[in-house]
Amino acid sequence: MNDETTRMRTKRGLGRGLGALFETVSDEEQVTQADRIVELSINTIEPNRDQPRQDFDEDRLDELTESIRDQGVISPLIVTPMSSPDRYMIVAGERRWRAARAAGLHTVPAIVRELTEAEAQRQALIDNVVRQDLNAIEEAVAFDQLIKQYDMTQESLASAIGRSRSAVTNTLRLLNLPENIRDMVRRGELSSGHARALLALSDASAQSDAAGVVLAKQLSVRDTERLVKEINAPPAPPVQRAPVDDRTDLHVRAVEEQLRRSLGTKVTIKDTKAGRGSIVIRYHSADELERLLELLIRE
Predict the structure, then answer these.
(1) How far apart are CA 73 and CA 75, in angstroms?
(2) How many domains does the chain fold into?
(3) DSSP-derived pairing of the beta strands 267-271 and 277-281
(4) Of 37-41, 54-58, 148-152, which has the strongest mean pLDDT?
(5) Which domain holds residue 193?
(6) With contact defined as beta carbons under 8 Å apart, do 173 and 199 qualify?
(7) How far is CA 212 from the centre of its chain?
(8) CB atoms within 10 A of CB 51
(9) What is the pLDDT of residues 232-281, one digit of tens each?
(10) Is the pLDDT of residue 28 over 60?
């Protein structure tokens, strides 16, 4: 699935969504109202260093490169002028720009918008969230930025992007994980489901140890949840032993020794302290058993 297909599918599922919240309209409407598409030299464009997407799936990028090599860039990039003359920063469409470079294109279609730094960052965040092509940690960071920088609530963000409030909350909770586990999610070694399961552990050390077990054993999300439950299970209470009467215990040991000498083998008396118990006579061969039986029956 290429970048443009993902974008169109997401847009249909959002309804008014982010457009209503931020008073924006679709790319097509914006182009006809104020913007125009221009061809820019690919070398005059550079990515936004502060955009939420930091990891690019190489396989998906290769697929997009092949698509662009065959059909060109279908959906234009959105860029904003930089302080240097004839230089532009990408607001939306870095994957398309990367793929176009890999495909050997010299120019790309773009919509140039005069945006402040804050406006450019907001639009980059929205574009990435709506396209749903961020990993779970990048998405959590984008959610956090939207909430903090634009005074949004979890409810309003959830409504805007077509998610449940609990989904937004669970995504944001991933930021409570230690950095090493967040890196595992970024690299695709752990899924968001694995990461959410690890959040049930009380401290970063326990979470990191459990993550190591998950990777080493290649546990599923369900197995990870079971592992976490086992770690969180309270230890079994110590077995309370009945107090031992030293005098009774010495008598039992003396009787054991007397039987051992009489029978020529180890004998153990198990006394329940309630007038009942058992005598265990050990033997190590059939011949020894026969000898013991003769002694016991004769006696």
Answers:
(1) 6
(2) 3
(3) antiparallel
(4) 37-41
(5) 179-229
(6) yes
(7) 13
(8) 21
(9) 987 777 766 655 556 667 877 888 888 888 887 888 888 766 667 888 88
(10) no
Q: Which of 250, 282, 289, 285 is nearest to 267 (CA)?
A: 282
Task: Looking at the chain, list the stretches that DSSP marks H as alpha helix, in order from N- to C-terminal side.
Answer: 3-14, 17-22, 27-33, 58-71, 94-102, 117-131, 136-149, 154-161, 165-173, 179-186, 192-198, 204-217, 221-232, 246-263, 286-298
The set of long-range contacts for 97-101, using a CB threshold of 8 Å and a minimum separation of 24, is 97/42, 97/45, 97/47, 98/56, 98/61, 99/3, 99/61, 99/64, 99/65, 99/67, 99/68, 100/42, 100/68, 100/73, 101/42
Q: 44 and 122, same structural domain?
A: yes
Distance from C-alpha of 138 to C-alpha of 132, rounded to nearest angstrom = 10
Residue-wise pLDDT for 114-146, tens only, equals 888 777 777 776 666 666 567 889 889 888 988
What is the crossing angle of helices 136-149 and 117-131, to 10°? 140
Domain C-terminal end among 106, 135, 164: 135
Question: Can you tell me the distance from the alpha carbon of 270 to that of 244, in angstroms, rounded to the nearest whole number?
Answer: 13
Q: Which of 94, 114, 257, 288 is catalytic?
A: 94
Query: Is the per-residue pLDDT at 20 higher than 60?
Result: no
Q: Which amino acid is at 263?
A: L
Question: Would you call 94 a catalytic residue per the annotation?
Answer: yes
Report angle CA 75, 77, 82 to the nearest 5 degrees. 170
Q: In this structure, are 192 and 84 located in the same domain?
A: no
Closest of 45, 66, 63 to residue 6, by C-alpha: 63
Distances in Å between the Cα of 217 and the Cα atoms of 30, 76, 177, 210, 222 are 51, 45, 21, 11, 13
pLDDT mean over 142-156: 84
282 with 191, same domain?
Answer: no
Selected residue with higher pLDDT from 113 and 161: 113
Whether 146 is covered by a domain: the verdict is: no
SS3 90: strand
Q: Report how far residue 207's alpha carbon sits from residue 181's, in angstroms, rounded to the nearest whole number.
A: 8
